[in-house]
Every structure is written in C-alpha cells, then in structure tokens.
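4.2 Preliminary Data

To establish feasibility before requesting continued support, the project team ran the inverse folding procedure on a target of 236 residues. The structure was first converted into the token representation described in Section 3, and no sequence information of any kind was made available to the design step. The complete token record follows.
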C-alpha cells in the first residue's frame, strides 16, 4: 500500500483526486492540504511515499515547495498549466498531469511510482488469472444463495451493500463494489461507473454515455471510466 497526500487548494480538484485514489485501491490517502507549507511538517513526521502536488498554491508555489524540501517522496504534479513541465522534471517528479485528466491517465502516472509500478500491474494480472470461481454464494439473511458467475449481468452499489443483478433475479450482497471489481475476471467484468460493474457480454449497444443491455435496460457510463471501457470494447 502506497501512503500518499494531496496538496491542492481547489475543492473540485481535491474531490477528483480523492475519487481516483479510492478507485485504484493501492493508494492510502493520509491527508489533504490546501497549501504546501502546511504539509512540510507532516511529511517530516509521517512516512509518505507519494505527493499529488498542484503548482499554483497560496503562500508558496508547488515549484518553490520542490526547491525547499530536501528528502521528498515521489511527486506527481497536477495543474491546469503546462508552463512548468520542463522545469518540474529537474526536481525528479514522476509525472505531470494537466487538468482535467482522465482516470486512465491518472493510473498511468501512478504506475510510474517506483514501489507501485510493478505491484499495480501484478495485482491486476493476478485478478485475471485467479478470478472468483464459476460459482459464488451470496449471504441473504440466514441463507447462502448460490449464483453462477456467468449469470451475473451487472452489479450496482447501493449505500452499504451491492445489488447483484442476474438473468433471473436481483440479490443483495454485503460485499463492496470494490470487492467484486478486484475478484471478478477483469477480462469480462468492468467498472463503467462509480456505482456499476458490467458483464460485457450483456452489451447490446453503446450510446454516448450509456450502455444499453440486451433486454434494453440502460446503465450510465461514468466520465472517469469511459476511456478505459471503450478501449476494452473497441479493439483496434
């Protein structure tokens, strides 16, 4: 697990980073700061592996922060301006993300972190090699109900549980959406939205930001997931 912090003064940008960090699963967000000075003491006292750093910050800029900190963790810059790209690499930054950036581009940057690069790819590969068996058991009250994995059409997150939609009926599970994402075969089941995992064999057609299933049911495609989803579906 990679320990990381965010240094970003804009709440919308903070929310995007927090969501992307949560979706990856290999990152543990320890703290969020609105200015770089406030983060310095925290970095000295805590073991931090990675910083998501904005450039235009109050008090001191991200570039000034890189100049003054001596023993810094890996850094990924996040900014709406490309002016400092070349200069930033002089300070050994891992990557330079121009806002707004996609979830896929975020993952590419995180994969460059020395400790994480091989770990992230390895975990995804293991999930493909060792998915859940052909049968899963869903706890319902005092019973455990057997479900064929191939019968799962899609999974929807709803508050503290997930809904498993099969070809026959809907079941409630106490497992999180992340659990299903990490354990189902990623060649067949893909996250298309913060609240949905889809069995791609159920796709009838894709219309803009929606997936229409064989029975004409419509599911949303989240902006952060669309690029990776389309790359999986549309083979060049």
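Position-by-position output of the design step:
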């Amino acid at each position: 697990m990679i320990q990381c912090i965010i240094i970003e003064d804009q709440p919308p940008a903070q929310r995007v980073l927090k969501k992307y960090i949560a979706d990856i699963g290999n990152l543990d967000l320890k703290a969020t700061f609105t200015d770089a000075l406030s983060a310095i003491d925290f970095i000295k006292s805590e073991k931090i592996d990675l910083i998501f750093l904005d450039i235009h910050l109050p008090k001191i800029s991200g570039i000034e922060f890189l100049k003054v900190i001596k023993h810094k963790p890996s850094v990924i810059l996040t900014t709406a301006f490309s002016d400092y790209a070349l200069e930033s690499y002089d300070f050994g930054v891992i990557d330079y993300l121009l806002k707004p950036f996609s979830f896929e581009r975020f993952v590419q940057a995180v994969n460059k972190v020395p400790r994480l690069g091989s770990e992230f790819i390895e975990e995804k590969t293991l999930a493909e090699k060792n998915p859940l068996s052909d049968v899963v058991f869903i706890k319902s009250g005092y019973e455990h109900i057997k479900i064929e994995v191939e019968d799962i059409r899609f999974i929807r997150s709803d508050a503290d549980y997930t809904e498993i939609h099969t070809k026959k009926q809907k079941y409630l599970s106490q497992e999180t959406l992340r659990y299903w994402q990490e354990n189902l075969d990623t060649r067949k089941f893909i996250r298309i939205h913060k609240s949905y995992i889809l069995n791609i064999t159920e796709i009838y057609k894709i219309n803009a930001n929606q997936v229409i299933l064989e029975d004409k049911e419509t599911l949303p495609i989240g902006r952060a997931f669309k690029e990776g989803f389309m790359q999986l579906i549309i083979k060049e």
